[in-house]
Amino acid sequence: MFGYFIFKRAALAAIICCVMSASCRARLRLSSARFLSLCLAILASAPFAQAQISSPDDISGLVVWMDGKDVAGTGIQPADGSSVTTWVNKGSGGDLTTQAGVVTFEAASFDGKNPGLRFPHLARMAGPNPFAGNKQNVMTILFVSSNVTPTNNASVSLNGTEDGRSNDTGRTSFHAPWTDGDVYFDAGGCCGPERLRGNFPNPITETSLYTGLNDEPGNRQWLRVDGQDIDTDMTGHNADVSGGIHLGAFPSGNPFDGRFAEVVIYDRALPLAEVEDIECFMLLKWKPSAAPTGCKVNIAASKDVEVWDPLSAGLYAVPGNDVIYSISVVHKSGPDLDEDTVFIADSMPAEVVFYTGDIDDGGPATGAVKFVDNGSGLSFDPNVNVSYSSGVTKPKAASDCDYNPGAGTGYDPAVKYVCIHPSGKFNAGTPDPSFTVSFRTQIK
């Protein structure tokens, strides 16, 4: 049995193949469920390996998680162009609310396809201190943003709008970047040897991922952009965080004119492996072109086959009897797959004929293909999300599946591929979301 599956996300695509020879099927007799062997290939310019997380809350210590793909925390986005007064924090801390100016939701503000919040010059949002006290000597901050125009921005702060130099009450913030073309990270005052600074490697308007880490007991500080080191040192600081989270313009003269996609903060100084896992997750989500080698969305698939025996008569997989093929797909790690990008094309072996009628002959399922969801977020209508191909070439997309077997309850030998293309995005999450599709064939 040969199956062909495509899962596309932006520039990333994966093919999951199943192979089973006729002789192997004969040995198994198909009298009970059997997993087929799987091979995985990646259609991308560089090799990828497994990402380790499905969402930021897979890693402990999460206190802030504001997601431009889930602004309200409900899965329902604001209307394009509408003002946003609250950005829900899916971490343990409080939400952000608009404090000045007008922050708006843009459905395709990042690279023309991903949503985000637009902060013009005077706009800012703020929220409470998410940490346990007014001082914090360990923290990891990651955020995705882009600039519309160059400014002396202090766009992200963990101490309100404080921009002083004192180590006791000073700033804990980023310039991302400053108008001199450098990125700055200050954890507890500025602007001496404790400051991290490095050249911003991207054009000013490019979507960019910033990472800052402060670890006083571990004697380390990191500043990274798009998963690459910008500056490090062997010191850490007890930073003032009493002013709370702040995004956008500083009233003291450090404006910000740009957009935010996502903000993630931990109350720990994470080890490098965990930092890289989160960077992998965020880059795949917002900037897959910058995702490093070894970073990918991990989708796993398995295939079962069993005899169709509704009366429990002890039937075997012999000519004239039917079998049910079931394909299970699991989203194991990485971010959500983009809207309407899941496509499965499964081929019919020469030994079987596809059954075009109701898969369970009047049972609870309807249509020739059954869909069972387990938290995937996908929707399925057998009249909309299933199509067929009579060609000998593997279909690459639903548009390639243009054969109509017609209505009825018969077996159609012209069906060579069953094409399944559920609607919506394939959610990431914990436990791993999944779905299963099944169809029926008759052994010749």
Describe, in plain words, how this protein is organized in 3D.
The chain has 444 residues and is mainly β. 5% of the residues lie in helices and 39% in strands. It contains two helices and 30 strands. It has helices at residues 22-28, 272-286; strands spanning 3-9, 12-19, 37-43, 62-67, 86-87, 96-100, 104-110, 114-119, 124-127, 135-136, 138-147, 156-157, 172-175, 182-187, 196-199, 208-215, 220-225, 228-233, 239-240, 245-248, 258-266, 298-307, 322-333, 342-347, 352-355, 369-374, 386-389, 411-412, 417-420, 434-443. The strands form five sheets. Strands 4, 7, 8, 11, 16, 17, 18 and 21 form an eight-stranded antiparallel beta sheet that branches. It has an eight-stranded antiparallel beta sheet with strand order 5-6-9-20-12-13-14-15, with no helix packed on it. The two termini are 15 Å apart. Residues 1-51 have low confidence and may be disordered.
Question: How would you summarize the topology of this molecule?
Answer:
Layout: E1 3-9, E2 12-19, H1 22-28, E3 37-43, E4 62-67, E5 86-87, E6 96-100, E7 104-110, E8 114-119, E9 124-127, E10 135-136, E11 138-147, E12 156-157, E13 172-175, E14 182-187, E15 196-199, E16 208-215, E17 220-225, E18 228-233, E19 239-240, E20 245-248, E21 258-266, H2 272-286, E22 298-307, E23 322-333, E24 342-347, E25 352-355, E26 369-374, E27 386-389, E28 411-412, E29 417-420, E30 434-443
Antiparallel strand pairs: 1-2, 1-24, 2-3, 4-21, 5-6, 6-9, 7-8, 8-21, 9-20, 10-19, 11-16, 11-21, 12-13, 12-20, 13-14, 14-15, 16-17, 17-18, 22-23, 23-30, 24-29, 25-28, 25-30, 26-30, 27-29
